[in-house]
Amino acid sequence: MLRLSPKPMRPSHRLDVYLVPTDPDAAPRRSAQAYLQQLEARGILTNDGGPGPHAGRWMPEGFARLRLDLPDAPTLYANRQGGFRVRCPDRGDVVTADFARALSEWRSGGPRQFACSACGQDHPLEAADGRPAFAIGSLALVAADAGATSPTPEALAEVQQALGPVRMVLSRG
Ligand SMILES: [Zn+2]
Asked: CA 35, CA 130: separation in Å to the nearest integer?
C-alpha cells in the first residue's frame, strides 16, 4: 500500500481513540456519515477509510483508519488492556464490583443501571465515573492506530457538532 503521509515509528502498543456520544441511545448515523464524507473532501480521509494527505490536520500524526462503529445495540467502549476503576458519581467511593456485576447482568439483558453500595441509589451504567474513561454508546467514531491521544481541538469541535457531546475513550491493545 502506498502511503501519502509517511508515519513515524510508533510504540508497539496500538492506540485507538473512540469518540462516543454521551447519550448512550444517540446514534446520529447520518450526520456522522456526512461528516466523514466532508473529511474525505478535505483530504483528511481516503474513500477506503485510510489517512488522506491532510490527516495530520485532524489528528496530530494522523491515524491508520478512521471509521464509524455501529453496534446493533448500545455497547461498552473501554480500554482493552487491564481493568478499570469505577467511582460513585455522587460520593466518589470506589464501587467497581457493583458496576462489574451490573455490567454483566446488563449484557445478558438486565437493566442498564447499577445498585451502588456507596450511596444506596441506582445509577445508570453510563453515569459511572470510570478510570480509565469508558463510555456506553450506540455509535462511535474510531481513529484506529492513532498518532495522538486526541484529535486537534478544531477537529474535536467539528465532531461534537456532527455527533453532539462526546466522551473520548482511549483503548490500547
Ligand atoms: Zn452511588
From this structure: 29
